[in-house]
Amino acid sequence: MAATARQTAFHCGSNAMPSRGLAFGGMGAYNAIMLRPLFASALLLLGACKNDEADKTQSKTEAKAEVEPAAKDEPPAPSEAGEQSDDEPSVEPRRGKGLTGAIGEVVGGVEPSKHALLIPDGATVLLGIDLSAVVSHPLLPILESRLRSRQREQLRAAKACGVGLSQGKTFVIGMDLMTRNVAMVVEAKGLGTRKTLQCMAKEIGNFTLSEDGKTLSDHTGGGIVLDDDAVAFASPAWMDPLRERIAGKGKAAVEGSAREAFARAKPSRPLWLAGEIPAYLGAMAAGVLGAQPSMVLVDAKLGETVDVEVAVQVPDPAATQRGLQEKWNALRGFAVSSGVPRTVSESLKISNDDEMVRIEVQATPDEIDQLLRTAEGGSRGF
Asked: 255 with 103: CB under 8 angstroms?
């Protein structure tokens, strides 16, 4: 990193959320609105929402993970690993003609986006969001109204720098839940320009911007400008693999670690997730499902209603479906009495195919607002 690079810091009050750095702090406005609330809504609809204590526990866990020392085999600190050599482009990866289509054939006919191709091998969970579709949907104001104070500040700063939610285009993230490594690409009009990044360094801080405005770094990882509208980020251990993917080298997660999950994904939807479930999480989910899942798929369609489908891979889908249906039949009345709109409860359907149990549910934005208010009122849902 150039010696003249400017570094600023964002200081939080005692009640503020812990700093999460470039990936989850500098881009906090996008993360807060596009990731956490949307999945909270989906989980609420499926009755898996927990109370505030669970959220606090998660925040503490994330904060603890940030202060833990890096593994011995991890690359140098981001300020060093973030350096970009002369042969590493700051543009989208050089790809051979038809590469996206070729990889689409390899992973089962599901064609990855150019940004999904940047997520390096090692990511076992992939998430994609069409920001342009989400920001124009009536659900957005409902989610914005529930932002925490620090997230509101981050959104204000993003707007001040000309990259508010209305400029959002796409977001894709890959992660390994076991190692906590992460890589993501955020695309928003003007996000990658020097002017915007300098503004965000001043308004949000918490990261170092190189003198040429092409690389970013902080204690949680680094970022590389792809073009005027897109920036790629990664945790320290994945910075080198990210550079390789930008240069058109190495292997993408959709070709390797996340191949099987991505082949079953629906990346054409405004929101989709595909991932392998680690054994420890699968064991926890087994208490609800009655079987240990090995893969999860989530997707959402946005229209007059928000249509969410969650699919989990289990050893015996038919048996798992029967067990879930029995539980739902017994709890449906309680769910409605606890604040779940009757139309939402009636829309919930459980089915199965050869390898997956599928749960589908629909809700209007107003019904999601009601669900969120029910959860905020202290109900554990159903």
From this structure: yes
Which DSSP string corresponds to 77-134?
-HHHHT---TTS-SSSPP--TTHHHHHHHHTTS-PPPTTGGGSBTT--EEEEEEHHHH
d(CA 159, CA 134): 17
Token digits for 106? 């390899």
Q: Any idea what DSSP says for residue 4?
A: T
Q: How confident is the model at residue 219 (pLDDT cuts 50, 70, 90)?
A: confident
Of 163, 223, 231, 238, the C-alpha closest to 199 is 163
List pLDDT tens digits, range 301-338. 999 999 999 999 999 999 999 999 999 999 999 999 99
In whole angstroms, what is the distance from residue 59 CA to residue 150 CA? 14
Is pTM beyond 0.90? Reply is no
CA 110, chain centre distance (Å): 19
How many Cα atoms are found within 13 Å in the side-chain-facing hemisphere of 162? 13
What are the φ/ψ torsions at residue 166 (nearest 5 degrees)? -65, -20
**Torsion angle defined by CA atoms of residues 265, 279, 33 and 204, in that order, rounded to the nearest 10 degrees:** -120
Coil, strand or helix at 346: helix
Which pLDDT belongs to residue 101?
A: 37
Gap between the Cα atoms of 51 and 378, Å rounded: 7
Which of the 8 DSSP states describes residue 24?
I
Angle at which helix 365-376 crosses helix 36-45, to 10 degrees, equals 90
Query: What is the pLDDT, as a whole number, of residue 242?
Result: 97
Task: Decide: helix, strand or coil at residue 138.
Answer: coil
